[in-house]
């Protein structure tokens, strides 16, 4: 380049002097004297601006820009930042506008100006606004239109446009000026020339097509201009010719343009019409073997999933297949809407299966999660009103209404002057009627207090439509010797249980023959039931059957599931978290897409359907699996065979609801040994699941049980959880349209011929199992144990809600011992308000067994406290296979503020018990509600506190648990009060009853990522251990709070301060999934808690804890 010698010499001298100053200020000096650096740079800018203003000589301006380009090239962006801060961007735009007025404008000057703007733009936050206000947008666009064949000039113009279009207002303005059409003129078929230009044009085009609120019209322009087929043809051309994969960025750019266009409904329609599904499917399949092409495969997968036509669930209605007429319909809410919905309304899909509002390419729009709210910025769900936070300890009901509950607290007035010490049985339960009967003020008191035997006291089921059921009447006694297992010629085993009228039978319902070919053709043999009583002290198959007879279900189940009859013995081997295979989600999604590409390969054969009540099991020629879920706690509504060894499964909604699909429990038979089957549960609702992070489903093999191994085991390969193409109706999605269901998919094979297997979401624990366990607990009672079982109330479905009282008998009937007995502090425990959280029942089982144990720790605990326990708050939901609700169709853990005695009797009466205790100044020391958590690992607690306004006593119990319980994680605990949780048991008991230590204890459904069980899936052994360790922690809490000098407790609490960030709503352990990403095991970036070494020895020797001094425990952190 030829520069005037005099000008060059003069300009270089001045600039070099100033640059020399900057160079001498490099390093630490630059940091210390930033202002001087800015002043030096400002002088350079002033020099350039002055020269540009004082001359119209293009060559002079070029010389200035050339030197400025050299200046801004070095310095790692620092100089560009200073240049921007001193108004350099505006100067460049001013020169650009001036130069554009020359006809024709200098090509070299425009080239140099756009090159500089491309460097400066990314560092200037207001670059887009400045460009629009100065008129530079139109200058650049017009320049491109006039130089479509000038690749040298187009490249810097495209680079600048890419920065322009990051501003949403600019994007729509550029679209109006014809940029979209210009871009498609530049994008060309495969060529080894001008690849940089093509790549830049695609990176410019894609943001212009983003469906921002003001830029959606650009995507519409691309559709109206019929550019979707052009993009597909171009992509296919580059895919076929770029055999060495040197131009992956260009191919990715074409896909990104398609992705942005298909964010609108018209774009998706155009994509389908252009055969885009087949093109991308075939090209992606060819890319799969090359790992470096994963970005292309993932983007193609996202586009195809987004454009996959939404299908309706294969159901006549999303309401439950079972109907229960409520005696009283709520005035408002989801249940009221359900009952007011006209019968002719199609609630499965909306009139429009999607809308123009995109779900964007980061499809992690998490739904309203019941257990854990979705992430809200700034924790805006935390209650900050101190007036609402401070507990109000005055119960809202008059004491006269609560006096009837005195009958549940006989231990507080018992004088033990009669021969209670020789009796090993509790008194007859006192049934408090609901509002369906008499007012609590006028309850008839039973004249006799007979022995309560749950195996003999049976009740009939009231009519669902009867608003005022009469007191339950006992059924005819059933003889156990009439129940027998037989095997007919077809090798079908049944347990025949005559009903009172002598006709109905309970049957096992599925074929289960012998194992292997050696037994074929042999004589029928009696099924050998394993003696689980030798392995399980609280399990008795015959007693379980007796309990089933007194359990009332809406479908009137007449079958007993094998696992519940045989029982479960926890395996001795470890079950590690499943390592995720790379690409498993992608491969499953591609198999789903094949359904659209090759529809003739799909069988679409219904093999099980609860919507056909007369014959849900559809007979066939033996080429399909047989399914069944018609037993207590079962949940499977429909099974559709889609391929020879693949089945779509649909779960049933909670009764009187149209959603809550998560819990499943069903039976499978008719399988082939060694064949891999794929099961897809297609109507899951939560946006994320621990199935994506190592959790497996549970399987129970009857053949294994017969062989002496009755147990649930984790099973399933290729497990993943992802959004599918089944449309979710806005009726069930809170009014939101365009939502989809999620699929849980897993594959498994079977080891035994003619086996009957069961699959479950988590270890089942039925209501009949609870009744059996409570009956067996009676047998563990010794003269030193005070145990009473009451019936708190009857549920809507006619099932009893048990209430337990456990403590130690007084040493004698002396006044001192009786006074000590009556004045023991109370602990109030509850569990299983959510039926699908079966792990809560296993934790409760561990608690109950520990409390009834003979160890010194158990004896000390009984002597320290009186335990009031409601082990199952939602029997109806458990019996009928619900996931979250009771028969009222409502989440009972959201009814504690104002429970309805008709619709929520268990909550109403449990709260009344607590209100009674508050009235007599005997509020519990600790209240804890056992729950399960579906999206976090470990066991942890939620508590209640007024931030920084009260002492930290509420943290003592979880802190103790973190020291002694291997599965417990203090780091996962949270003690804030959220507005959305103000009607839960934890918050209401804290706020209204005044219990400072009011908790929800959450147990993972998956496993642990810290401590002794790190990397393992949780089992019943660990859950029961957690229940026992909770008891041990209560004993340690008693010792700490009972000290005259509370310094030990304060020391313990002070250890927590600053070590646990629990003043905010705890987020999920794992991030929500971006569906464009293949989630391999390597990408699982879960937050890992520090391993807790404590509790290992405690678990092996619980008595060792008793030997530790308080000071030792306080310092074990």
Automatic annotation (TrEMBL):
Catalysed reaction equations from the record: (L-glutamyl)(n+1)-gamma-L-glutamyl-L-glutamyl-[protein] + H2O = (L-glutamyl)(n)-gamma-L-glutamyl-L-glutamyl-[protein] + L-glutamate
Top-rank lineage group of the source organism: Eukaryota
Biased composition range(s): Acidic residues: 346-372
Alphabetized UniProt keyword annotations: Carboxypeptidase, Cytoplasm, Hydrolase, Metal-binding, Metalloprotease, Nucleus, Protease, Signal, Zinc
Ranges of compositional bias, category Pro residues: 464-474
PROSITE patterns: PEPTIDASE_M14
GO terms under biological process: chordate embryonic development; proteolysis; T cell differentiation in thymus
Name of the featured protein: Cytosolic carboxypeptidase 1
Source organism of the structure: Lates calcarifer (Barramundi)
Gene: AGTPBP1
């Amino acid at each position: 380049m030829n520069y005037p010698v005099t000008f060059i010499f003069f300009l270089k001298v001045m600039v070099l002097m100033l640059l020399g100053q900057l160079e001498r200020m490099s390093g630490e000096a630059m940091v210390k004297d930033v202002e001087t650096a800015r002043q030096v740079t400002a002088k350079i800018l002033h020099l350039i601006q002055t020269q540009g203003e004082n001359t119209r000589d293009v060559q002079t301006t070029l010389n200035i820009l050339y030197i400025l380009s050299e200046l801004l090239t070095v310095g790692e962006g620092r100089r560009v930042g200073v240049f921007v801060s001193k108004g350099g961007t505006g100067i460049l735009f001013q020169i650009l506008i001036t130069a554009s007025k020359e006809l024709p404008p200098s090509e070299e000057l425009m080239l140099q100006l756009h090159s500089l703007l491309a460097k400066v733009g990314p560092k200037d936050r207001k670059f887009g606004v400045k460009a629009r206000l100065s008129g530079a947008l139109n200058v650049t666009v017009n320049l491109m239109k006039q130089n479509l064949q000038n690749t040298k000039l187009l490249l810097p113009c495209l680079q600048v446009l890419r920065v322009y279009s990051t501003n949403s207002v600019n994007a729509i303005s550029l679209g109006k000026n014809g940029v979209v059409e210009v871009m498609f003129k530049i994008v060309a078929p495969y060529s080894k020339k001008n690849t940089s230009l093509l790549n830049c044009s695609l990176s410019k085009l894609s943001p212009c097509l983003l469906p921002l609120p003001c830029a959606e019209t650009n995507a519409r322009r691309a559709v109206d201009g019929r550019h979707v087929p052009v993009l597909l043809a171009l992509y296919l051309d580059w895919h076929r010719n770029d055999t060495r994969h040197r131009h992956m960025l260009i191919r990715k750019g074409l896909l990104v343009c398609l992705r942005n266009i298909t964010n609108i409904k018209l774009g998706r329609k155009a994509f389908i019409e252009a055969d885009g599904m087949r093109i991308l499917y075939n090209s992606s399949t060819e890319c799969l073997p090359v790992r470096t092409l994963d970005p292309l495969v993932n983007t193609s997968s996202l586009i195809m999933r987004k454009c996959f036509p939404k299908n309706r669930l294969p159901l006549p209605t999303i309401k439950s297949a079972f109907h229960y007429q409520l005696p009283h319909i709520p005035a408002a809410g989801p249940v009221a809407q359900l009952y007011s919905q006209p019968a002719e309304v199609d609630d499965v899909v909306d009139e429009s299966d999607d809308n123009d509002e995109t779900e964007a390419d980061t499809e992690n729009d998490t739904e309203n999660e019941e257990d854990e709210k979705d992430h809200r910025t700034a924790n805006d769900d935390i209650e900050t009103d101190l007036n609402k936070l401070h507990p109000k300890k005055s119960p809202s009901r008059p004491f006269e209404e609560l006096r009837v509950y005195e009958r549940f607290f006989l231990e507080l007035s018992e004088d033990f002057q009669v021969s209670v010490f020789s009796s090993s049985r509790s008194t007859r339960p006192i049934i408090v009627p609901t509002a369906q009967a008499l007012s609590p003020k006028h309850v008839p008191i039973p004249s006799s207090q007979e022995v309560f035997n749950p195996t003999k006291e049976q009740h009939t089921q009231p009519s669902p439509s009867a608003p005022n059921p009469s007191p339950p009447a006992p059924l005819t006694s059933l003889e156990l010797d009439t129940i027998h297992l037989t095997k007919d010629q077809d090798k079908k085993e049944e347990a025949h249980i005559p009903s009172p009228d002598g006709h109905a039978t309970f049957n096992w319902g599925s074929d289960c023959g012998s194992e292997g070919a050696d037994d074929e053709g042999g004589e029928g043999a009696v099924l050998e039931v394993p003696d689980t009583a030798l392995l399980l002290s609280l399990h008795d198959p015959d007693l379980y059957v007796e309990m089933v007879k007194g359990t009332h279900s809406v479908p009137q189940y007449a079958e007993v599931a094998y696992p519940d009859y045989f029982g479960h013995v926890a395996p001795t081997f470890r079950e590690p978290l499943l390592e995720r295979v790379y690409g498993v989600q992608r491969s499953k999604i591609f198999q789903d897409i094949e359904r659209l590409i090759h529809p003739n390969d799909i069988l679409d054969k219904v093999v099980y359907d609860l919507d056909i009540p007369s014959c849900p099991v559809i007979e066939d020629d033996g080429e399909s699996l047989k399914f069944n879920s018609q037993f207590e706690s079962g949940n499977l509504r429909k099974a559709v065979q889609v391929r020879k060894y693949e089945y779509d499964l649909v779960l049933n909604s909670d009764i009187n609801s149209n959603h809550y699909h998560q819990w499943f429990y069903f039976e499978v038979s008719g399988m082939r040994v060694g064949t891999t089957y794929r099961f897809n549960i297609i109507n899951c609702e939560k946006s994320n699941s621990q199935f994506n992070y190592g959790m497996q489903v549970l399987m129970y093999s009857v053949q294994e049980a017969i062989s002496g191994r009755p147990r649930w085991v984790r099973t399933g390969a290729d497990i993943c959880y992802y959004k599918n193409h089944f449309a979710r109706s806005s009726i069930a999605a809170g009014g939101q349209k365009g939502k989809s269901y999620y699929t849980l998919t897993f594959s498994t094979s079977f080891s035994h011929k003619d086996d009957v297997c069961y699959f479950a979401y988590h270890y089942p624990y039925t209501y009949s199992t609870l009744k059996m366990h409570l009956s067996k607990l009676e047998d563990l009672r010794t003269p030193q144990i005070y145990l009473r079982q009451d019936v708190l109330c009857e549920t809507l479905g006619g099932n009893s809600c048990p209430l337990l009282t456990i403590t130690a008998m007084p040493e004698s009937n002396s006044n001192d011992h009786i006074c000590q007995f009556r004045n023991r502090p109370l602990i109030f425990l509850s569990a299983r308000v959510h039926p699908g959280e079966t792990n809560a029942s296993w934790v409760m089982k561990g608690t109950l067994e520990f409390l009834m144990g003979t160890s010194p720790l158990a004896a000390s605990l009984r002597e320290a406290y009186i335990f009031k326990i409601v082990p199952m708050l939602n029997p109806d939901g458990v019996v009928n296979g619900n996931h979250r609700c009771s028969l009222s169709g409502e989440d009972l853990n959201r009814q504690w503020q104002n429970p309805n005695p008709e619709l929520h009797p268990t909550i109403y009466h449990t709260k009344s018990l607590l209100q009674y205790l508050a009235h007599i100044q005997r509020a519990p020391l600790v209240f804890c509600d056992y729950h399960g958590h579906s999206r976090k690992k470990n066991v942890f607690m939620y508590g209640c506190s007024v931030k920084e306004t009260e002492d930290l006593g509420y943290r003592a119990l979880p802190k103790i648990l973190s020291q002694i319980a291997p599965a417990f994680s203090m780091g996962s605990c949270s003690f804030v009060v959220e507005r959305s949780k103000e009607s839960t048991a934890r918050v209401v008991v804290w706020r209204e009853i005044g219990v400072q230590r009011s908790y929800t204890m959450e147990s993972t459904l998956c496993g642990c990522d810290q401590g002794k069980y790190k990397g393992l899936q949780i089992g019943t052994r660990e859950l029961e251990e957690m229940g026992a360790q909770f008891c041990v922690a209560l004993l340690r809490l008693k010792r700490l709070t009972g000290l005259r000098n509370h310094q030990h407790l304060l020391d313990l609490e002070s250890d927590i301060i600053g070590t646990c960030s629990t003043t905010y709503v705890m987020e999920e352990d794992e991030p929500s999934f971006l569906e464009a990403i293949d989630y391999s095991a390597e990408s699982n970036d879960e937050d890992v808690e520090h391993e807790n070494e404590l509790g290992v020895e405690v678990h092996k020797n619980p008595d060792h804890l008793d030997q530790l001094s308080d000071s030792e425990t306080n310092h074990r952190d």
